[in-house]
Structure formats: C-alpha cells, structure tokens
Design a protein that fits this description.
The protein starts with 6 loop residues before the first helix and ends with a strand. By secondary structure, it is α+β, with helices and mostly antiparallel strands. Strand 14 (621-625) and strand 15 (631-635) form a beta hairpin. It is elongated, with a radius of gyration of 37 Å. The longest helix is centred in the N-terminal third of the chain and has 33 residues, at 203-235. The protein is built from 33 helices and 21 strands. Helix 3 (58-70) crosses helix 9 and helix 23 (495-508) crosses helix 25. Strands 1, 2, 3, 4, 5 and 6 form a 6-stranded mixed beta sheet that branches. Strands 13-15-14-16 form a 4-stranded mixed beta sheet. Bound molecules: manganese (II) ion (MN). Residues 59, 84-85, 150 line the site of manganese (II) ion.
C-alpha cells in the first residue's frame, strides 16, 4: 500500500535534502546520526507550526543549513541545530537527548535551551543573561555559533511576527547579536543581521537604499567590467589563479555612512568594493597579495591615506587582507580588497573556517585569545553585568590600535586606551606603580591616550599608589577592576592611623571612647563601612569639626558632652539642676519664653541673629544668653557657636522657631560655574520668581570663563532657600550652589 505524502512532508524532505547538499560530512556513521536527529526532530515537532504557517521543523533544518553552509560547522553542530528547539518546545528532556545522541550533543542543546528566552527581561537582566550566555563559551563555542544561526533564521522570517515583537527582536539583534557575530569574525552573518535589523527598525531608510541599489545595479556592473578589464589582463599572466568579484556595501553600513557624514545616497562614493581573491598556496599567499597590490597600483593611482595592511598584522577577529582605494580612469575612487581564498573563507565564515586551517602556522591566538579575554572578564567578581556589557561593547566597537612594548612585543588595545590601561595590561603591579611613561621616547603622564604604533615604556615608582582619579583615566574593564581592588587594599593601611586619630579627637574633647557613639558618628558622616570611615579620618576628610557638629546634632551626646566640657554646667550658678534640667524645664514649663519669632521678640525675650551664620527659620538653632541679657541665636552647625558652647556652656539656651511669620531673614548663597551670556538675568529671574524674596546684593566675579558669585537674599525660611538653590542649580552653566554663613 502506498502512503499518501502530503505537500508539507514534501517541503520538509526537500529542505532536508538541501541540508545534505550543503553539509560537508562524509563519514557514514556521522551521516546516520544526522539522519537520526532529523527523524527525531520531525517526530518531536510534528503538528507544530510556525507563525508563517509552515511546519515547525523547517526552522531547525534551516538553522542546520546556516550552520553548515554559512558557518561551515560539522556533524555535531548540524545534529544540535536540528534538535535545538526540542527540549524547549516539547516534552523531551536533556536526559532524553543524552540517551539518544550522547553527552556532547546534550550539553550543547542544554546551553542553547538555557540561552533561549533570555532576552525577555528588563535591561539589567538582559545584560546578566548575556553574561551567562557568554559564560557558556567556556563550555563549547558551538552553542554561540548555533545560537547565531538560530537568530539569523528568526530574523529572516521576522515578517510573520507582530510589530512590537519585530522591534524588540530587531533591536536585540542590532545591539547584541550582530556585534557578537562581528567579533567572532562571521562577517557575512553580521552584515545580514544588521541589514535585517535595519529593515524592521527603520523600514523607510532600508527600503529607500535597497531600491536605489537595485536601480543602480546595472550601471555599476558595467563600470566594474570596464574598471577591472586592464587588471585582469595583467593578472592573467601570473601563475596563480584568481577571481574578481564586486561586493556592494551592506544597506546598514550605507545608512550608517549617510547618517554619520550627513550625506545623501548619491554622495556615498564607496558603494561597492572590488575583491580580488587569489588561489595561492599558504606559503605564497602574502607575497602574491603584495604582487597583486603592485599590479593594481601600477594601473590606478592609490589614495595614500586609505591603505590598510592587515596582512602583516591581522585584525583581532582574525581578518587578513590588503585594502587600498584607487582612482579609476573615470575619476571615481574604488576600494580594492586583496586576499587569498583561505583569508576570504575565514573572513566570510569566521573562526569555524579558521579551524579548518588549524595545524598551519599562525592559526592560534585569535579565537582562543578572545575566548580567554571574555572568560577573564566573566570570572571577575568585581564587575557587575552592566559594566561587563559596556566593556564587551567597547571592545567590540572601538577600533583596535596596536601598541608595542619596549622589546617590540605587540599588544592590541581598544582605541582610546591610556598609558594606565597599557600598564595594567602588562601586569597589575606595573599598573599600580605607574607614574608615567615614555611613548616613542617622549615623557607622558599616565592619562595620555595611546595611538596606534606607539612604543610604550611604563615608568614605575615604588612610592606610587593607585589613586581615586585613576578610575576615570582607565578605559578598559581590566584596568578599572584592578585599580578598584588596589584602592580597596590601599585603604586597609589607613585603618590603624584612622583609629588613632579618632581616639585623639575624643581625648581632645574630653570624651570617653564609646563604641556606640563611634557607630553613630560613622552613620552621621555617611561612610558606608567602618574601614571607609577610618580611611577618611586618616586622610583628614573627616575631622574634629565634624565630630563636634555631630555631637551638637545628636541630642544625647550633646548634653553629655556639654556637661563634661563645662565645669559650670555641673554646678550651675545659683541652681542645683544641671543644664539639661534647665533646658528641660524651660522648654516644657515655660515654652513661650523660648519659642522665638520676631513678633514676640519685643515682648519677653530680646534676641539677635548672629551674623556669623545668619540663621533663618527652619535651621537648627541654639541661643546664648549674653551679659546684656540679649540672646544671641546661632545655627547649631556654626563654628563660632561651637566655640562659644565649649567656653560658655552655662549660658546656652535651647531655642526653636515658633512659626514662619512674614518676616524676612538675610541669608547668603554661593554660586559657581561657567560664565555665560544672560546668566545674571537667569539667576535674578529664578530668585525673584519666589514670592517675597529680595536680593540684597549679588556679586559676581569671573575669570577665564569661570564665575563665582555671592548672593545675599532675604528669605522666609530654609525651605524657601532650598527651593531657590535647587532651581538655581538647574540653570545651564551653574555647577554648584550652596548656602554660606
Ligand atoms: Mn530556534
């Protein structure tokens, strides 16, 4: 009996035949395994359909085709590609995979399943997951390669998805997958991913450019034939085979260029490049490339600044070729790329192709080196996922520069790297002790940005220690994380001196050393850890003044302290009660006598506002009875008040503001920033936009584009003052505004 074959089955079988045509697998055992995986995938995904309506299994077969044809992967990868969605989308488990296809296949599928669905998260999770995805690199790089094939097929069939999904998937592709493909040297896949991403992200630009390319295609072809004719004629006399092809720039790179240079499509002069691929032996390929270069530039004049030699020093992703741009006889610049067929295959297919040439010299480095770098970054516990992603992208997009040690060893660095980055690349200790460098025998500081071809000799000093500002000088994640940990280490040395200094402060203030007090003092100075606290003390960033400020603000320690400091406080004149009691009584029994406002001032209490600190309603204040009977009001943070309190503790009166009232108080603010036209007008506008605020004076001094100003204002209270400050700080050019005494 003949079974009726549905048209679906036919499509599937044809797809599978296509896969077999592209696969280079010849071993019958491996072929059988591929067949088994195919049958299994068909069975597992049966009755499932993609959004487009086609049988689901077409997708894994397509992914296998991309893996084989465009990346050049072998049997294991083809099997994994065929099975990549089975565990995720059906009831089969990793264990099932292992039983049927062995450990290796199961591990790769496990990796692929875990990566899947990774990007359905918020931004920081994305980065974290991306990090995880790259971690699997250390297991098996095929996970990443198959994932890229999967993504490419999904991008090719993105049409069937709803609009929002299209945008999300396209963005991820542009942001993560295309750079990853680029880094792995999968140039063709990278370009296609970028073009497809553009198609969904900016359909108008994409359509415009692809249409223009189509229209101009014929004309371009004719030109290329005319242009290459004399070159072919000469090359035909050589003893190596060659082919000449033209490569049109990808749509996304044309668009990139149009945007970057603000030009129209017609103004992009390098729409295409001509590639000459030589069938040379490995031994002769470089010499042959140079010979072709000579031939081409004999006929056409080269543009000096467009010459690129990636033969002598390949790009970090393994790219090798000679590039030059020459003037055609019709007056048009044309880019020529010269490479051997081996170089060409690696350039198009990436490292998978590279592996084919393993065993030949020069094949190490590259991928392994890159994987090692990634692994190093991933394993760095000091770095969080977002930093990692930034660094990853930095390393991807920044063009590389090549620098040299004094002994001539080449070190590739991301463009923008500084002397400090270079020092840390050599060794963490070389970085930690760096004081500068000699670049091409010229003395430069650690902040000097490196250029390609620089020969750098780092100058070290035993006295040198990493500095905080180095975090801003370093560009690479490696340097940054090493500086961070060195700084941490360095801080430890300050702990003991910091403790001693604190003890000294306590002694000076005649206080007992009280751990609880130290803890709250630490909280007051907003230092996150105890070690940071001692570090700041030792460095003098926190001092006796802050400790005194704190004592004044902290009620409990204040009263204790005042009592200890002031002999009179223990035995107040004519009264047995100590100061605390006095304050307490005054506050609770006769509060009106101490609550101050100008309205009441004429009545029971006479007071003045100290002009050393100009207190205004809202400030924490404290009063001093003066011999005249007038209370002098200071802010508790006032340095003069601190001095007064330590000397005349008995005459302290606790005071607080009664109400806002309608009276204005004089207060001063300091403003500084960059001098700009109209700045004074803007400042006065902000100030006078607040009801009832008057400017008493505004003095501004400026020099060399910087200005510093002091404004004396009549305000009602601290809230109003703070409001003005926060408005002023938003003015463009103003860098800082703060209250002054
Ligand atoms: Mn898939």
């Amino acid at each position: 009996m003949i079974e009726k074959v549905s048209s679906d089955d036919k499509i599937v079988v044809n797809k599978y035949r296509q896969l077999l045509r592209y696969s280079t697998v010849t071993d019958p055992v491996q072929k059988k395994r591929i067949r088994k995986a195919y049958n299994f995938a068909v069975e597992a995904h049966k009755d499932m359909r993609r959004r487009s309506g086609e049988p689901y299994v077409i997708h894994p077969i397509e992914v296998a085709i991309i893996s084989a044809k465009e990346i050049g992967l072998g049997a294991t990868s083809i099997i994994c590609a065929l099975l990549h969605d089975v565990v995720e989308d059906t009831d089969y488990t990793i264990k099932d995979m292992e039983v049927m296809f062995g450990k290796k296949v199961a591990r790769i599928i496990d990796g692929l399943t875990k990566i899947s669905g990774i990007f359905d998260q918020s931004s920081s999770l994305q980065a974290e997951n991306f990090r995880k995805m790259l971690l699997t690199l250390s297991d098996d790089v095929r996970v990443i390669l198959i994932k890229l094939a999967d993504r490419l097929h999904n991008m090719r069939t993105l049409e069937a998805m709803p609009k929002e999904k299209q945008l999300k998937i396209a963005s991820e592709t542009a942001y993560l997958y295309a750079p990853l493909a680029h880094r792995l040297g999968l140039f063709a896949i990278k370009s296609e991913l970028e073009d497809l991403a553009l198609k969904y992200k900016e359909p108008e630009a994409y359509n415009l450019i692809s249409k223009k390319l189509q229209i101009s295609q014929e004309e371009r072809n004719k030109f290329i034939t005319r242009f290459t004719q004399p070159v072919r004629k000469k090359l035909n006399r050589q003893d190596f085979g060659y082919k000449v092809i033209s490569r049109t720039k990808s749509i996304s790179s044309i668009w990139g260029k149009m945007q970057k240079k603000q030009i129209t499509f017609d103004e992009v002069y390098d729409l295409f490049a001509i590639r000459i691929i030589l069938n040379s032996t490995f031994e002769n390929e470089k010499a042959d490339c140079w010979q072709v270069y000579g031939t081409v530039t004999d006929i056409y004049i080269p543009k000096q600044d467009r010459f690129r030699d990636w033969l002598s020093v390949p790009k970090a992703n393994g790219y090798e070729a000679l590039h030059t741009t020459v003037m055609s006889s019709e007056g048009q610049w044309v880019e020529i790329q010269i490479r051997s067929s081996r170089m060409d295959e690696i350039a198009e297919k990436g490292y998978a192709a590279h592996w084919k040439y393993k065993g030949q010299k020069n094949s190490e480095g590259g991928l392994d080196e890159w994987l090692n770098k990634i692994r190093e970054l991933l394993q760095d516990p000091n770095q969080d996922a977002l930093d990692f992603l930034d660094d990853f992208k930095l390393n991807l997009f920044a063009e590389e520069i090549f620098t040299f040690t004094p002994k001539g060893e080449m070190i590739s660095m991301p463009a923008g790297s500084t002397v400090l980055d270079f020092a840390y690349t050599i060794h963490s200790e070389v970085g930690n002790k760096a004081i500068g460098a000699k670049i091409n025998n010229k003395l430069v500081p650690v902040s000097q940005v490196l250029g390609s071809g620089d020969q750098i000799e780092i100058l070290n000093s035993h006295k040198q220690l990493p500095k905080d500002e180095w975090m801003d000088i370093a560009v690479t994640a490696r340097a940054k994380s090493q500086i961070k940990s060195a700084l941490k280490e360095g801080r430890k040395q300050y702990i003991e001196p910091g403790k001693e200094k604190l003890e000294q402060c306590f002694v000076e203030m005649k206080l007992e050393i009280d751990p609880a007090l130290i803890k709250s003092f630490q909280r007051y100075t907003k230092t996150p850890s105890e070690n940071d606290f001692y570090f700041k003390l030792a460095k003098g960033e926190i001092g006796l003044d802050e400790l005194k400020d704190f004592m004044l603000k902290d009620e409990k320690s204040k009263s204790n302290w005042l009592r200890k400091l002031n002999p009179f406080a223990r035995k107040p004149k004519g009264n047995e009660a100590d100061l605390n009691t006095v304050i307490h009584e005054q506050l609770h029994e006769k509060p009106e006598s101490l609550l101050l406002s100008k309205k009441h001032a004429k009545g029971k209490i006479d007071y003045t506002l100290a002009n050393c600190c100009n207190p205004i309603p809202g400030d924490d204040v404290i009063g001093f009875f003066q011999s005249s009977g007038i209370i002098d009001i200071h802010r508790t943070t006032c340095k003069d008040a601190t001095k007064l309190m330590s000397t005349y503790g008995n005459s302290i009166v606790k005071t607080k503001w009664r109400d806002k009232g309608s009276v204005e108080f004089l207060s001063g603010i300091k403003i500084y920033g960059y001098d700009q036209i109209g700045l004074i007008r803007e400042i006065t506008e902000v100030v006078s936009s607040e009801l009832s605020v008057n400017i008493r004076s505004l003095n501004i001094e400026s020099s060399e584009g910087l200005f510093e100003g002091i404004a004396m204002l009549y305000v009602q209270d601290t809230k109003q003052l703070e409001r003005i400050i926060s408005k002023l700080i938003k003015i463009k050019g103003i860098e800082n505004v703060y209250r002054i005494n």
